Amino acid sequence: MPHHGTTHDYDTYDRLIALLDTSSIAYELIDHEPEGSTGAVSALRGHPESEAAKCLVLRVKVDRKTTRHVLAVVPGDRRVDLDAIRSLYTARYAGFSDAATAERMARAIPGTVLPFSFDPDLELVADPEVVTQPRLYFNAARLDRSLVISGQDYARLAEPRVARIANPESS
């Protein structure tokens, strides 16, 4: 099967929908213009940025030999607090993964990273304000389709480690 660009290199979208359909969790799909930036896509979907799940792949160096990959999920209007991540893992360093690593670990192109991990080596951490959202919006591993789910159902399904990892102030 020929590949056209990177859009179809991952079955992440199908895995997500299959997971939702077998879990009897209520969700909605929203089709929109292809857009991956949190601010722009929130406007297209018609909700405040605080209801979006912003998903970032981080590199956490615990010590000289150990690097862990962390998928951090924070409200769309906030930034990831790298110091909070560092202390969470008692690590020497925490920073953003390079694009290629992020794409490989998240199995999605930038702008479409899900707040779910389908890779055993990608650890999922979500801010408490994400899991308490009545309606949580995120790109469904595609730039042209988004998903809405309750924060509570998201937490039950994705089973993230919940910790305060968002900067208190808006970005």
From TrEMBL:
GO terms for molecular function: aminoacyl-tRNA deacylase activity; aminoacyl-tRNA ligase activity. This is YbaK/prolyl-tRNA synthetase associated domain-containing protein. The lineage of its organism: Bacteria, Bacillati, Actinomycetota, Actinomycetes, Kitasatosporales. Keywords: Aminoacyl-tRNA synthetase, Ligase. It comes from the Bacteria. Gene3D superfamilies: YbaK/aminoacyl-tRNA synthetase-associated domain. InterPro entries: YbaK/aa-tRNA-synt-asso_dom_sf (IPR036754), YbaK/aa-tRNA-synth-assoc-dom (IPR007214). Pfam families: tRNA_edit. Residues 32-157 form the YbaK/aminoacyl-tRNA synthetase-associated domain.
